[in-house]
Amino acid sequence: MNRPYLIMLPGFGMNSCVWKRISEFLWKDFELIFIEWDNIDLLDGFKQKVINIIEEKQLSSFSLLGWSLGSLVAEEIVLDNLWNINNLILIGGTSSFIQHKEEGYNLGWNKRIVERMKSQLYKNPKATLFNFYDSLFSDEEKKKGYNTQFLKIMEDNIKIQSVDSLALELDYLIQKDLRNKLVDVNIPLLMIHGEEDRICPIEATLYIKNILTHSNIEVIKSGGHIPFFTNPHDCYYFISKFIKKHL
């Protein structure tokens, strides 16, 4: 029997090497398709890149796994309601990366901080990215050396990142707000979130759960923003259990 397709959408400043630890498990159950955020020059280009792959491979059905920035792109694809999408999986997900304090939504970053990060990227891209990468991990994970391991892996990755491309990713995070559209997500949804996530606070996932009560949440104890790197086996177990439940 053919394995179902799982399209994997990474976060800001990442390429598909970030999935290595969990993909070793996921290959058992899925045909994996990795999306890269290179060569994009318009805000709509993130969603369009995924659509191009769907059309190029003529996928009749598939599931989406979006992490961080990728969670917003995955939500956009689902909300288009144009494809037969089996399942939506969000890791470290959100419906709005930016705070909207005027509406009482404080579950994200202040826009000014992201704008500052954008200007820092142009001055010193490597230091800016490495500071961000370090913040992906909880204190508990840092004690175990996961941040050091990750920085070594990303050394090669940074060299191929265009600063303009990274800045566009930050623009996407600033501008994309899907909170009012969430109610239209009508497929099985699993959200995996680190308990100590400093990038997208766990409350951002609970916000989605309050709107989409049919969704499932799995929390990684003492986990940061990248639990599929620090806890790949646990994340795979949650995904596998969820998929089997919705076959």
What does this entry look like structurally?
With 247 residues, the protein is of the alpha/beta class. The chain has one domain: Rossmann fold, CATH 3.40.50.1820. It has helices spanning 20-26, 45-56, 69-80, 111-123, 125-134, 139-143, 146-158, 163-175, 202-211, 227-230, 232-245; strands at residues 5-9, 31-34, 62-67, 85-91, 189-194, 216-220. Strands 2-1-3-4-5-6 form a 6-stranded parallel sheet, with helices on both faces. α1 (20-26) links the parallel β1 and β2 (31-34).
CATH superfamily: Alpha/Beta hydrolase fold, catalytic domain
Number of individual domains: 1
Task: Quickly give the CATH architecture.
Answer: 3-Layer(aba) Sandwich
Largest sheet: 6 strands, parallel
Low-confidence stretches: none
CATH topology: Rossmann fold
Strand order of the largest sheet: 2-1-3-4-5-6
Kindly, what is the distance between the CA atoms of the first and last residues, rounded to a whole number of angstroms? Answer: 14 Å
Which class do the helix and strand fractions yield? alpha/beta
Keywords: Hydrolase
Organism: Clostridium estertheticum subsp. estertheticum
GO molecular function, one term: hydrolase activity
InterPro entries: AB_hydrolase_1, AB_hydrolase_fold, AB_hydrolase_sf
What are the defining features of this structure?
single chain; alpha/beta; Rossmann fold; 46% helix; 13% strand; globular; AB_hydrolase_1; AB_hydrolase_fold
